[in-house]
Amino acid sequence: MRSQTLTVIGSQVFVFGGWNNSVCYNDVYVMDTETMFWSQMITSGDEVPPCRAHTATASYVWTKARPAGVAPSPRRTHTCFHYNGYVYLFGGGDGHKALNDLWRVRAEPTAQGTYEWEEVETRGGRPFPRGYHTSTLVGHQVVVFGGSDGQECFGDTSLLNLDTLEWSHVSIDPPLTRLAHSATLVGMYLFVISGHDRSDYSSQVLMLKLDTLRWETRAIYGGAPIPCGYHACALHDGRLFLHGGYNGQEVFDDMYVLELSSYSYLPQVPEFVIGCHR
């Protein structure tokens, strides 16, 4: 499958939704990271429609949220992140154009059982409209990297301070264009894996050191995944799990594991400031 979500809860990895170029899924599969055993999760509650290019938080009982007031427009290929009691939504595409609006909703319903969205006003100039980007929460900031508006493949990086709601845009040398990649925070590094670079699919593992905002590469051993994008990636117990993907012709069902044991110190770094040593 491609364009699914991969979510870690405890020692289990939950895979939801996705698409195989002909069928869209609403199944939930679970892999135990200790035994590497797959099982299909039996869920209950409200039926969830098949979907892809979505965001998801896995649970054992589905409940269809009842929105109140104005809600974001329908979209896909957006990103979501949780901060200070809110789930934030940024960007995506509605099938006609790319978007760069920012919304948030409280993670808990109101006393009436509804979820109330609000559009968030920001300062500093928003990033260009885009989907297929990544938004990674780092402390009280979000790092928005790459993506596409359907015409261009972006390599820019923007920061959103969630306390002041102000955007800033940083220059990274050399620039790196990516869409449909994954970006996973490991200590002070952002591991950017695979994706499309405007010309072709990649299987690269690149590390953005957030205190210097410079790219680094390390020697990677073992059998690398086939170059792809639209995959899902998550960190658990010193390992990066990469599932599925698409290379323009074939949809994959593999699970790859990148062991970080030789770099086990990375998640243990003290607090740092993004871009403080440029």
List key phrases describing it.
4-stranded antiparallel beta sheet, 278 residues, 5-stranded mixed beta sheet, single chain, mainly beta, 22 strands
Summarize the structure.
This protein is an all-beta fold and 278 residues long. 0% of the residues lie in helices and 44% in strands. The protein has a 5-stranded mixed sheet, with no helix packed on it.
List the helices and strands and how they pair.
Layout: E1 5-9, E2 12-16, E3 28-32, E4 37-40, E5 44-45, E6 61-62, E7 66-68, E8 79-83, E9 86-93, E10 98-106, E11 114-119, E12 134-138, E13 141-145, E14 157-161, E15 166-170, E16 182-186, E17 189-196, E18 201-209, E19 214-216, E20 232-236, E21 239-246, E22 251-259
Description of the molecule:
The chain has 278 residues and is mainly beta. The protein is 0% helix and 44% strand. It is built from no helices and 22 strands. The protein has strands spanning 5-9, 12-16, 28-32, 37-40, 44-45, 61-62, 66-68, 79-83, 86-93, 98-106, 114-119, 134-138, 141-145, 157-161, 166-170, 182-186, 189-196, 201-209, 214-216, 232-236, 239-246, 251-259. A hairpin with a 7-residue loop joins strand 10 and strand 11. The protein starts with a strand and ends in a 19-residue tail after the last strand. The model has no long low-confidence stretch (mean pLDDT 92).
